[in-house]
Amino acid sequence: MKTERDRIADEVVRKTERWPEDNVVPDDMESQDLIYHSAPEQELSLKYFTRKDTDAARPAIVFIHGGSWRGGDNLQFCRQGMYLAQKYNIFSVCINYRFGQVAKFPAALQDCKAAVRWVRSVADKFNIDTQRIGVVGGSAGAHLASLTALTGNVEKYEGAGPYQEFDSDVHMAVLFNGHFDMADQLRDHVQDAAMHNFFGAHPWELPGVYGEASPFLWVNEKSPPMLFLHGDQDHYPHRQSIAMHERLQHYGVYSELEIYEGIGHAWFNKQPACENTTLRMAQFIEHIFNLKTE
Predict the structure, then answer these.
(1) Do 145 and 173 contact (CB within 8 A), yes or no?
(2) In terms of Cα–Cα distance, which of 93, 100, 150, 152 is closest to 118?
(3) Do residues 86 and 12 lie in contact, with contact meaning Cβ atoms separated by under 8 Å?
(4) Which of 28, 152, 187, 244 counts the highest number of beta carbons within 10 A?
(5) What is each CA distance from 48 to 5, 10, 84, 170, 203, in whole angstroms?
(6) What domains can be seen in the chain, in order of their start residue?
């Protein structure tokens, strides 16, 4: 039988399309917008959600929005973040990052890592279990989330952002319709203009850089567990999620894969897919982090 907390959490999932900026957070929840990094080009903000009614140690999830590395904002995953906070006592963090037209790769990745370090910097304040930190991303955000998960503490990707005394390791990733192989993207001419904007040059002008930005090439036996969700009609080919899943398995890393028939790109914030994919994501996180609903 569902509890009142379950009912409230389920209602969060059923909200339409995006988190309204004037939405009222329940009394037992805390949410705040703040600046986590003052980059040279702009200040970078995040929104967090957390429960106020428990002192139990909690995992943390950093959500990274999509938008072809040149658009979008951190409202994309606020519904999912609040759901996990409400139902599983997860410290949910939805971040903004620098776009390609503002600063070239690896700036956006460095921002994601700064956000993970920020989470560790507030671990004592919010009672965060720093051995249970994950990332979630969609589309370009899935690319950044997977790179964040696969390049923990790789110095050149840490950047000059704050909280350098903390590391950027994460322990799992959930990836919606992501890009994981830049060479494959180039072969299909998928997002040529967006990639040029993100990197600032064509691949032949940046030898090796497009490859370094391919999560597929970073997979090894120490990679964290991952869940891939992808529509088989996506113009970003779902074969990339299949290839990532199989590569992780090759290295003995736990991985799950869901391919959705007849589904195109960025479907996961539309009903009924939003509810279904949020629950599928929660199932994976519950398993990896050994969680119970509260």
Answers:
(1) yes
(2) 93
(3) yes
(4) 244
(5) 19, 19, 12, 18, 37
(6) 27-173+187-198+266-289 (3.40.50.1820)
CB-CB contact of 28 with 96 (8 Å):
no
Query: How many Cβ atoms sit within 10 Å of the Cβ of residue 107?
Result: 20
Q: Is the whole model's pTM more than 0.90, yes or no? A: yes
Q: Which two tokens stand for residue 184?
A: 């494959």
CA distances from 67 to 20, 71, 252 (A): 19, 5, 32
For residue 277, what are its two tokens? Answer: 């994919």
What CA–CA distance (Å, rounded) separates 48 from 121? Answer: 14
Spell out the per-residue pLDDT of the chain, length 294, in tens: 555 555 544 554 444 344 444 456 778 899 999 999 999 999 999 999 999 988 899 999 999 999 999 999 999 999 999 999 999 999 999 999 999 999 999 999 999 999 999 999 999 999 999 999 999 999 999 999 999 999 998 999 999 999 999 999 999 999 999 999 998 888 877 778 999 999 999 999 999 999 999 999 999 999 999 999 999 999 889 999 999 999 999 999 999 999 999 999 988 888 888 889 999 999 999 999 999 776
What's the distance, Cα to Cα, between the start and end of the chain in Å? 14
